[in-house]
Design brief:
Structural class: alpha/beta
Number of strands: 26
Strand order of the largest sheet: 7-4-6-5-9-8
Shape: elongated
Bound molecules: adenosine monophosphate, magnesium ion
Distance between the termini: 25 Å
Strand content: 25-35%
Largest sheet: 6 strands, mixed
Number of helices: 7
Helix content: 10-25%
Length: about 400
């Protein structure tokens, strides 16, 4: 049995981002950069006005001075106006400063006349001018490999003229749920059957983390059918099979993996729930055999599958993301495994989350999930922890 850290290191061992592709920034939100994104142009691209008013020569401006108005400069225009001494040009916010001008006199500091403008204030050289490249220079690196393309980042790239980015392709994650007892939610109940929840829970965690999920209908506990569908699922980047990874007479997943040429890396991790987790590889495909219990499946996905997925999609930080908080009541690992206690997380007066483990604990206690916000982590070997003890928190 592996410790959690060792098992995670084995999953991530040698993993590299997938090959990259070019994607329009319109389709790139949440994707991860594979190469530096550099500004195409200076920002601002030219000296431009920050105000509505008059482009002027500062030396000409004093209260009462009258300047001849040569024309009107709108944002986006490129009129051929050049200022001579004693002249001005009307200018709108964002428009280019014309040659000869060295300041912008705000419209509030003027009185308009017939073909002239009269200043009512002075203006300093450079005032209200946004200088070319004062923000960004062409060629500057705006974001680097591993950076997630958030909305602010996309805004910066768009402003700097970047229309297409280089990102690792989206990992394909095939999700197979096994168990003769499984019914899809929404279908009529049947004797001896249970509704299955791993498709929605595991599938959604993977999708939220940026994977492209391929779903299959539930597979009965039949050796041949299990093997056939696993072979299909092995064509993606990650294969997740839930259920059937134990050693009962109806657990066909491990022999099916073996028959399909998947090489085992480890089986069993010192965590609760989730101990029967199986991990292996075939070629570049990562293969996870998750215990079928819904809590185990969720915990194993958050702890192992999502970090692997994040690495494949190019993220620099792969998690698993554990927050910090405190226990609201005494708790501890239930045996020699690091225990994930289903908990209600309630912020205290300082906003620190306080974990109250639900009364019902156990990998089959799916009802308890309904009143929970995540898991408090009681590390193996920690012994009983008092109320107020600082703990890691896993939110899913
Ligand atoms: P297994 O890992 O196949 O031994 O399954 C462990 C427990 O989880 C059994 O009680 C199964 O009925 C249940 N189970 C297996 N797969 C699912 C699923 N997809 N959704 C909900 N429960 C499941
Ligand atoms: Mg089963």
């Amino acid at each position: 049995m592996k410790d959690f850290d060792e098992a995670l290191a084995l999953v991530l061992d040698g993993l590299e981002p997938l090959s990259s592709e070019h994607v329009s920034i319109n389709d790139a939100v949440g994707r991860v950069l594979a190469a530096d994104a550099r500004a195409v142009i200076d920002l601002p691209p030219f000296d431009r006005t920050a105000m509505d008013g008059y482009a002027v020569r500062a030396a000409d401006v004093a209260p009462g001075a009258s300047l001849r108005v040569l024309g009107d400069l709108a944002a986006g225009g490129a009129e051929g106006i050049t200022l001579e001494p004693g002249t001005a040009a009307r200018i709108s916010t964002g428009a280019a400063i014309p040659p000869g001008a060295d300041a912008v006199l705000r419209v509030e500091d003027t009185q308009a006349g017939e073909g002239v403008v009269v200043a009512t204030a002075t203006v300093a050289e450079g005032q209200h001018i946004r200088r070319r490249a004062e923000d960004v220079s062409a060629g500057d690196v705006l974001a680097s490999p591993g950076d997630v393309l958030t909305v602010p980042r996309l805004s910066a790239l768009a402003s700097a003229g970047v229309g297409v980015v280089d990102v690792p392709r989206t990992p394909r994650v095939d999700l197979i749920v096994t168990g003769t007892e499984l019914l899809s939610p929404g279908t009529p109940p049947e004797p001896g059957k249970i509704y299955e929840s791993n498709s929605i829970a595991v599938g959604t965690l993977v999708q939220q983390a940026g994977g492209l999920v391929v779903h299959y209908p539930p597979v009965p506990d039949d050796r041949r059918r299990t093997q056939d569908i696993i072979e299909l699922g092995l064509q993606g980047d990650i294969l997740i099979v839930s259920g059937g990874v134990s050693v009962g007479p109806h657990d066909h997943v491990k022999p099916a993996f073996e028959a399909c040429g998947v090489e085992e890396v480890f089986w069993r991790v010192r965590i609760k729930p989730g101990k029967p987790l199986w991990f292996g590889r075939r070629g570049s495909t990562l293969v996870f055999g998750l215990p079928g219990n819904p809590l185990s499946a969720i915990v194993c996905t958050a702890l192992f599958v999502l970090p692997a997925l994040r690495r494949l999609r190019g993220e620099a930080e792969v998690g698993p993301y554990l927050g910090r908080g405190r226990l609201g009541e005494p708790a501890g690992p239930s045996d020699n495994r690091t225990t994930f206690l289903i908990s209600k997380l309630v912020p205290d007066a300082d906003g620190v989350p306080v974990a109250y483990p639900t009364e019902r604990q156990g990998s089959h206690m799916t009802g308890a999930l309904g009143e929970s916000d995540g898991f408090a982590v009681a590390p193996h070997g920690s012994g009983p922890l008092p109320a107020g003890a600082e703990v890691d928190l896993l939110r899913v």
